[in-house]
Amino acid sequence: MSALVVADRILTSGKYKSVLSLIKGFRNGAVYGAKIRLPHALVITFLFGQGPLVKKLRLILQATYTHSKNLASFVLTYKALLLLLRQVETSQKTYHSFIAAFIGGYVIWGKFNKINEQINLYLLSRILYGLAKLAVDKGYIIKPSGDVFPWFAALVWGTVLWLFEHHRAVLQTSLRSSMTYLYHDSNVWHSLRDFLLYNR
């Protein structure tokens, strides 16, 4: 009997499903992190990065590795803690997911670096949006009769530009840089060359 057949039997038997799901979760986290970060890092680094090609490639690989490693580690930690909590309490409880993710979030996503900051900010916006929808679904907030998306957009953009113009230091560095390029650098030019072809 070949090793592949034996491996297939083990994987499909269900006997080691819990342990194997941890391995598969780690693998999926690593793959997904790399698939998400590599194209993003590639585009951002070559559009806005400075320095030699080797330095740019190193930055791209570092960002991809960090995102992939952190996501894989978080998935493994989260799933392992869920299994542990189910063993301790003998059944799955609704708060298990929060506790497992809270611990994993603290340990893995709580280490400050640019990748973790970006992911946490990304999730925060989705959470706020989701909580608003949940509040409507549960009846805590009356469902609006009209389209609220234009008001949501207006509030987001009004607030961010007010912060940029009057309290810039509180904004994330990359956001400040993007907004400076869009709204302030567009006020400066010295010739047709830096009006059309280059920023300054």
TrEMBL record:
Pfam family, any one = Tim17
One CC-aspect GO term = peroxisomal membrane
Q: PANTHER family, from UniProt?
A: PEROXISOMAL MEMBRANE PROTEIN 4
Record-given protein name: Peroxisomal membrane protein 4
Query: From which source organism is this entry?
Result: Ridgeia piscesae
Lineage of this protein's species?
Answer: Eukaryota, Metazoa, Spiralia, Lophotrochozoa, Annelida
